[in-house]
Amino acid sequence: MPQSKPCIAVDAMGGDFGPSVVVRGALDALASKSFKLILVGREPEIRAELSAAGALGADIAGDIEVVHADQVIGMQDKPSDALRRKKSSSLQVAFRLVKEGRAHGVVSAGNSGATLACGMFILGRIEGIDRPALAGILPTEKKPMVLIDVGANVDCKPHNLVQFALMADVLVRCVLGVPKPRVGLMSVGEEEGKGNSQVKLAFDLLRKSSLNFVGNVEGRDVFTGDVDVVVCDGFVGNVVLKLSEGLAVSLGRLLKRELLGGLWSRFGCLFANGALRRFAKSIDYAEYGGAPLLGLKGTIIVCHGASNAKALGSAIHMAATFIKKRSNEQLLEELSAHSDLAQFKRRGSGILPEHEPAGSRLHGAGGGSMVMPLRPDAAAHDPAPRENPPSGVLMMNG
Q1: What is the pLDDT of residues 23-57, one digit of tens each?
Q2: Is the dihedral angle over the CA atoms 270, 272, 278, 280 positive or is it negative?
Q3: What is the pLDDT of residues 304-337, one digit of tens each?
Q4: Nearest to 75 by CA among 57, 91, 88
Q5: Residues 150-173, buried b or exposed e (16+ Cβ, 10 A)?
Q6: CA-CA distance, 324 to 2, in Å (whole number)?
Q7: How far is the C-alpha of 170 from the C-alpha of 295, rounded, in Å?
Q8: How many angstroms separate the CA atoms of 72 and 90, rounded?
Q9: Contact by Cβ (8 Å): 297, 126
Q10: Distance of CA 171 to the CA centre of its chain
Q11: Residue 376 has pLDDT above 70, yes or no
């Protein structure tokens, strides 16, 4: 943990609403006085929002700093373009502050693909991790659980899912305090052999790992609290996450309509008001704020583009908690010593078990085989000169 207060770089220009929401969320979070913030973006706009909030006094002078960045990465920008053409963007500047040691983590509600790309190029990946993943912390009937990946990688190989599971296992133990997390694999049925080829191969790898793997889980099992980690690719995870958010909002509206629909139900609300408030809080995504991006050499929290001030504040608190608990350092230490991760290494354009020669293949149950390329076609889609591209970045949407 840092010797002084944790310092978090906040992308003030990120999200659908920019500084008007980000600055309010940052100021609300800063009321705890337990960390420092660097607001990165167009300084005149940020200071105008600070002034409007009455936050230019000496009481926060030591806890907040503004760093100017004149470019903004939009939600429609491709990650490759954001990297090459917007080096003075608020997002890239925020990551460089972490690289230079001026900040300990980054919080952004901006373009998630660009956030991943900037993190991989500027901070770098943890050794042995091919693709960083977004870990959504979700409420359940019993206690919070982790759904990984919720959007960073829409296409994955089976060994990517194993790496996601390893990272989430460390996260749940270090942050949520579960000594032996139960890990499940998202599929269309609980029985072994259910699912597509990716899921079947990942099932075999997870079963052979040292993780507390409990087998396949279905979508209905996510919120029961019977598993601590659910693993899936980013396409499935993002659908599950947004479906859950939409369902929670719709259920709340339906409940409100029924409770306010008659005199007696309104009267009953007076007695149930406390329980209803607790229920609303438990399913409010803003309570969690964002998803940690695991697998990079730094603490990064990615927020929903439509996040409100409360959600931004919660994400900043989450980042501060991760930094204080040295979560990323523990993740790096445990993964570097993990035997399951050590058996894979990069060879040319593929990831292969150390004991297999280059060009070997993984064989599925049906007798077919598949190689495991990182992205050998990336250069063909992007002929402009650049550094070696990280796998999985250029296919992401903003």
Answers
A1: 999 998 988 778 999 999 999 999 999 988 876 54
A2: negative
A3: 888 889 999 999 999 998 998 888 888 888 777 7
A4: 91
A5: bbbbbebbbbbbbbbbbbbbbbbb
A6: 7
A7: 11
A8: 6
A9: yes
A10: 12
A11: no
Q: Is the pLDDT reported for residue 146 higher than 50?
A: yes
Q: Are 390 and 383 in contact (CB under 8 A)?
A: no
Q: Which range among 71-80, 281-290, 336-345, 350-359 shows the weakest confidence by mean pLDDT?
A: 350-359
CB atoms < 10 A from the CB of 129, how many? 22
Predicted confidence band of residue 192 (pLDDT cuts 50, 70, 90):
confident
Strand partners, 302: 108, 291
C-beta separation of 242 from 136 below 8 A? no
Minimal CA–CA distance to 318: which of 129, 134, 96, 79?
134
Q: Which of 50, 86, 44 is nearest to 68 (CA)?
A: 44
| Residue range 285-289: mean pLDDT, rounded | 70
| Residue 105 near residue 299 (C-beta atoms within 8 A) | yes
